[in-house]
Amino acid sequence: TAGLEHAALMRSAATVEAMGEVAAEEGEASVDDQEKGKDGEAANKLPPSLAALDPEAVTAFESSGAELPLHLHTALLKQAFNYEAWDMFAALHTLATLRLREMAAAHWPEATDAIPHWSADEGGPRRGVVMFSPQAVALGVTSDVLAAVRAVQIDGDPATPSGIGAPGAGTAGLGGDAGASEDEDEESDALHALGETLRTLSPEAAHACADIVTDAALLLWSLVKGVFTDATHEGIPPEDEGLVMELLAGLHAAFELVGLEDPALRATLALRLSLMLEKRGDVRQGAKVALCAAAAADVFRTAAVDRSRGADDESTRYITAEAIWVGDASLPLGHGRTLSAPQRINGGGGEGGGEGAGVHYGKTVRGGVDGGGASTAVLDFTPSTLSESDQAFACLHADLLVVCFRLQLAAGLLDQREEADRRLARVVHKVHKREDQAVIFGVKSAWDLKREAGQLERADSVPAHPVAAEQRLLAEVNTNPWQKAVLLIQMASLRPKQEQRAAMLEEVAGCLLSAERGERDLHAASPTLVLQSQAASVPPGQSSPRSGGGKRTLVPSAPKVLCRTSTSVTLMPPVFHLKSAVPDNLPPVPAAYMVLAKTYGTGLAPGMHNTDLPNTGVKFPAYTPAVTISGLAPNEVYCFSVVAFDAEGVVINGQGAPTAAVATIHPLPSTALWSFLAVAASRLGCVAVARRATGTVHRRFVETTRDRETWAAHPMSAYRLRREVVSAASFPTLRAAARCLLVSAEVALATRRPDRPRGEPLVALSVPDIHEQIFRLKTAKKVLLAMELSSYNDDKPLLQESGLRLGNCLAPLLTVSRKPPALVTALAQCLLALHDAGPARAPAVAALAASLTFELAAVARHSGEAGAAAYASSLTLPALRQEDDAAARAPEKPGEDAASAPLIPPGREFVALEEYLMIQPQWREFNSEALNARAAAADDPCAAVIPKIPVEGAAAAYAALIAGGDAFAAHPAYLRAFARVAEAAVAQGATAELPGWAAAALDAFKTATRVSPIAMPDPPLELPTPEAEQAGELPAEEEARISALEAAAVGIDASEGDVAAAAEARDIAVAHAETRRAAAGVLTRRLPATFVRLKAARASRALLAAGTTWHAAVHTVLGLTAHETQEAVGLPLPPPSPEPEDANAATAAAGAGGKDVPVDALTEDSDGTTNVPPAALAAMRSLTRAAELAARCGSHGRLANATRALHNLARCPVIGLGADPRLATNGGARCLYVAASRLLEHFERLRSGEVDESPLAAVEGGAAPAPITDAAMVELTEQTAKAHANDPKPNRAKHVEPWFARRPELAHEFATRFIAGAAVACAAAGMHHRAAALAAGLVETLGTDDLALAVLPSALVSMRAAGLMAAAEAAEMRLAAARVAQSPALLALANARTHAASSPAAFAAFVATTAAAKTTKGSRRLGSLSTRASTATTTTA
């Protein structure tokens, strides 16, 4: 097909065969060079030159070169690749490489071993760069690119080395783990080679073979994009970041060289590359990439505007990138909006009504936030006629500008730092030079040192923001409000002061309002809409204004703007309905017109001299429909006017009226920019700006229902999305709106102020007030709306993030004892939204999903919502489990799909949820595969026990647990299963067998966790053999050292000291060798047993850690059971004084309460008499043990249960401390002290943040407050300080909120009562040291004045009784401070209570003393008044 003769083909074959043999030899050498670390230089070497070939091969090469032109060679390469003729392709590739090398050697001899640069021979040769003809350039590019593509195809399909790899076959190498195979490494090398080939192409080479370069780049992108679109994990594996960034750089260079006409792909690629460069720290290169992509996006948008010329909506399509929003953006968020049907609005304009003709959707806002007021505003919007792809590209353009400005500012910071370093180096050099000249000018004085220190400090200081870069960028954006808003957002993050950041973000909001106002003005003045409106207003039978009717004017009207770009404006001339300047003359007839243009803002209209721009000053016929003025400066504002000419070329009455300001800009989506502003304000802590930005987006996308009474309105029905707005928005706009709604919820939660007054003593409510519940439910509805928008966009990461935020919002309502029924709606909607998000992408999401499912199942079952309860109990929510990220990246089997990777084991929250559902009698009716699989597990104690509890009872469940034997006892869930059995036994009335069950279960658990002592083997008793003695010789180095000393000792010059030193060294070395041998023997015998014990200890610790909280639960159940049993029996009768010789009589008397008392349970009093232990002591010991275990594992709920049960037992009127006087002294006070001490330690850990009191799942990072929350707290603190500064009574003590005020789950009132009661019991039992320690610790931990006033008076008695005088003095000082800080009202109330509790005689004495004091004070005052009166009389006389 090439037209070559047979001889030429034979010569080419001979040439290829000879070159292949030499190339194979050099290929082996290149592998060796690569292994030596020459950075792959040998891999890029070309085939051998002609000098390495034999003469016959040289002749064949010359003949083939003469008979095979370069362009035909290029065509054959392409056809061989297309038809998969790989042998011919390899031969042609090798021949092409040799031909190009020989051309380079002939052109520049020094370049024979260099890699040729594929650039055309233009402008003469340059040293180091080989110039070629265009045909040679095309051949070189085709050969290199196709060879690189072929290498990628071969490596992408290892099973068929000679075949073509399928598209996408190379994605496995990009997502692999650190242990990737050699095939994946080879594939990565092939991808790297292809990317490097594309990156190093010159513009001439790319244009010579644009089709091949484009196809190769698109193939490479199809292999790389899977890293960014993988739904199983976020981000790029760290081991692949370098390769992916190099490939993106090659793709970006190739797309820029060939000018790929896919703006979205080019912008997306540049955005990815810029972000990766920013992450690596190369902000300068990232800024270049982003700037290039932003310029290309501007060019593409300009071309799109040019393609719309002549369309029906030419004048309105590109006015806005999203929609024309009508209404005041600063209007407060209102209620009572009513949706009106789509209507046709003709004419009108302004902020409050429709603008021109078109479909408008309106909502009316009446009143403010509370529904009051009579002001109204119409929030209309006109959807843009842009396609969805154009709207999405506009959002992508905004993202590019954000990254571009951010990276340019970061590069400016680097430039400032480098300039400061150079300036500092000059100053340091000057200082050192002055130090070297100290001999000439003398030593530096103190003033010189101070001056130099100031110079060094000034030279090293740089501003916090790049001043030069900011000035340059502000000059570039000029009057473009959209770009200026984006730039100011990035500049605000670099400001060090909060006031500067807030002021700059307020300016951003002003820019956005100005830009939207400009869009509304352009839309209202659109020629199409104006003509339609005028035509609709003309009565039938009359001519329209365009046809010549209407009022005539002296000069032409202002032209209409059809469309605009960043460099041009297209104008439509006005209707020339002119009149003559001379009265009664015929009206002039325009024959032509001319457009005048100038920059706006100079105060004058365009004149006849403003004809410098293209198409200005050119006469166009009067019937010309439109004129495009090009060559305009981007981001500049212009005004235009028209001059009319008659048939003779005379100006008619001068130039016409000028237009309004027309900016040469491309509009950006306003919702995206408002979202940028809201997120930036939230992160920077600017509350007012965040509220303004989120309120704007909220009003546009969310409809608020009409106000109703609190008891008649459902909080979850307060908001709903505006369907007409959502249906007209693009996916990126929906994502921006969702992000803005999340910030709106953040702002609402951060700026929430308590409705009730705060003060001491704090009144902790177990249930929040109704207003707080409604507020949180309404805020949760905002988050649910964000989740709905995310589901429309299929944005799974944002959907799961919104779920976490919703959980944080509802957490205070989920931890109360009485949950509001409205939670069912919120939880059900959240779980339904998470259902579309797939498996959890983080452990926190899975934990939260399990917690919310549990709450929904519990609340729905209690509220009678059968449907919601059934959905929650089915456990079909995918977010309950997390997908294995590593398995998704690297499938184990070759044919396994990454999306079918297994799930990781469930977390503790999911396990608890399963157990809660399995304990329900109807759990099999839930039809849950997860529950059925859990019940079928053979090695799970909970699965064997829990299903039997509701059906067969606690006894059958215990039997199943015991049947498991030692395998169940060694399982981490063993005590969890027995705790369920114990609770079921109490609920089913089987408490008689419970102590025996507990003893057996706990003994089995102790046996499983017991670590056996080490059984050390005995040392060997046999005598050492000669082999052992030989093995015990000195090491070679030591023997050489000793031999050298002994050789020196036998010399002629050796002294006695040398001989003694040599002998001593030998003895010491032998002793050390014996010690080492003995130690080695001991370690050999003991280390195996030690390691076995260490392994057993670690396993035991794991079992103890897993069962500690359930161990505490078991002891709590045992204590409660013992309490109920003893309370039903009552106290035993007082035993008679037993005779010393009659122990049986004492035992019988001790068991008079109805039960026999064992002999070992008897105790001996101090007087030697035998006595029965207190009835409540066993229960108190069980509860104390439960409190110790719960405090050890930090379980707040278990500790609270144990201490409450212990508190109730101590206060029991039947067997408590008041009923049994012996209980406190015989161990009861000690138990109370231990439990109270553990509770105090737990509260200290709560205050320091080591443990958490919340019963919900601990979400990682969820405890960290948002920046806007901190800013809101600072604002609240400032307001409080101002209120204190304006206090009319400045000497009044200010209220300081304690650390536990906003944590009602702590139940500090109960802790105070329990610990204070324990201190009283210890004092009554004579344990004054313990009573004083409890009281002091309680006051120190909680630290309120009321607590000090309540606890310290009784604690002072114990401190003095224990001899703690220093502690007593400190307590007195703390008590005095608390009394001083007490308010007068509370002080008067305390005095009244004191007098009411006193005896009548004491109260009468107090009244008499007070009356006498008042009488004395009154007489003194009367005497003073009489003295003053007499003095005044004397003065008057």
Q: What can be said about this structure in brief?
A:
This protein is mainly alpha-helical and 1437 residues long.
Structure keywords:
1437 residues; mainly alpha; 5% strand; single chain; five-stranded antiparallel sheet; disordered N terminus; 59% helix; 52 helices
Structure report:
There is one protein chain. This protein is mostly helical and 1437 residues long. 59% of the residues lie in helices and 5% in strands. The N terminus and C terminus are likely disordered.
Supply the helix-strand structural class: mainly alpha
Rg over C-alpha atoms, rounded to the nearest angstrom: 45 Å
Q: Flag low-confidence runs.
A: 1-11, 29-48, 108-130, 157-183, 329-378, 534-538, 542-548, 755-768, 887-901, 1025-1031, 1140-1170, 1257-1263, ...
Q: In which range does the helix fraction lie?
A: 55-70%
The major β-sheet equals:
5 strands, antiparallel
The total strand number stands at 21
Distance between the termini: 146 Å
The number of distinct helices, counting runs of at least 4 residues, comes to 52
Mean pLDDT figure: 77
Beta-strand proportion: 5-15%
The coarse overall form would be globular
